[in-house]
Design brief:
alpha/beta, UDP-N-acetylmuramoyl-L-alanine:D-glutamate ligase, 314 residues
Length: 314
């Protein structure tokens, strides 16, 4: 079998998105089901662009866990070799609330603890972690044990190999206080090569909301690249050699803002694997994110390469 090109780590769930838009949750009559979670969506997005990807995570031994494993392998072509089954915890659910599609809400069902927070180093192949071209993990992996210690173990194996990517992906529901996330992010910034996040997430990570200062603060930790998402203002791309460029956004009518950042991540990984420079990767990421924002779902609606190429050419 071809070697893996991308290994993502962490959050996985069943997504339930309302089919009635612009109304409060109390008025929703039906939901559309798919799979989701940051690590999951990035792996799916990159697989849809032609790459061999895998997720290191856990699901429950329930029917939802079976559905997730089947969807990953049969629908999306994502390797499930490192998807474990937790004997005690239920597979998480995430309900979207889209009364304002541009500022969607999520209700997480992850109590008392989600299986994806119980991953152990013994459940993944060390050689894969050390050698895979891209290792990607989100901040949420650091919010509880044993996932937190597992990430530190994986980073020690990885030894800051390019590309070791931290998705700043701030979800307040996973933390008792932002300062806890700041402390945990401080521990891993010296062990990754790239960080990606919006202005609020950069504030949690390095105490800066100004995109240029945030990028500089991240690069000061020894990273080779930092990407700061600026919403309607586009994306700021900065590299250790002093290059800094703002990539213009791709305008779109938003149907659902969820998943756009993960589509960006999948396209970014595609560009890195293809040997593109970082601005080119970010341009493709902006287009991929815009496509998903114009659709309802996350994993189901990740774009194909021809869709991204068509908009880039335009």
């Amino acid at each position: 079998m071809p070697a893996l090109e991308l290994l993502t780590v962490g959050r996985i769930c069943v997504d339930l998105y309302p089919e009635q838009l612009h109304v409060p949750l109390r008025d929703i009559q039906s939901f559309r089901k798919s799979i989701g979670g940051t690590a999951t969506n990035v792996a799916v997005a990159c697989a849809r662009l032609g790459h061999r990807t895998a997720v290191f995570t856990r699901v429950g031994t329930d029917a939802f866990g079976e559905y997730i494993e089947w969807s990953l392998s049969e629908r999306f072509g994502v390797d499930t070799s490192f998807v474990g089954r937790d004997p005690e915890m239920l597979t998480p659910l995430a309900f979207a609330e889209l009364s304002d599609p541009g500022e969607p809400g999520i209700i997480f069902y992850r109590q008392p603890q989600a299986p994806d927070m119980r991953i152990e180093p013994s459940e993944v192949d060390r050689e894969v972690v050390e050698s895979v071209p891209i290792l990607w993990f989100p901040t949420s992996c650091l919010s509880a044990e044993p996932s937190r210690s597992t990430i530190h173990e994986l980073l020690s194996w990885r030894d800051r190999r390019v590309h070791t990517i931290l998705d700043l992906d701030w979800r307040h529901q996973f933390w008792s206080d932002p300062s806890d996330a700041t402390r945990e992010l401080d521990r891993v910034l010296d062990h990754v090569t790239m960080a990606i996040g919006n202005r609020a997430e950069c504030d949690v990570a390095v105490g800066e909301t100004d995109p240029q200062r945030a990028a500089e603060a991240l690069l000061a930790r020894g990273l080779t690249a930092a990407i700061v998402k600026m919403g309607a203002d586009g994306v700021l791309v900065a590299t250790r050699d002093g290059a800094m460029e703002r990539i213009a956004p791709h305008p779109v009518d938003v149907v659902c803002g969820l998943g756009a950042g993960d589509a960006f991540g999948g396209a970014l990984c595609h560009g890195l694997l293809a040997g593109w420079d970082l601005p080119a990767c970010a341009r493709a990421g902006n287009v991929a994110g815009a496509i998903v924002a114009s659709r309802l779902m996350c994993a189901d609606d990740m774009p194909y390469l021809e869709e991204i190429d068509a908009l880039l050419d335009r």
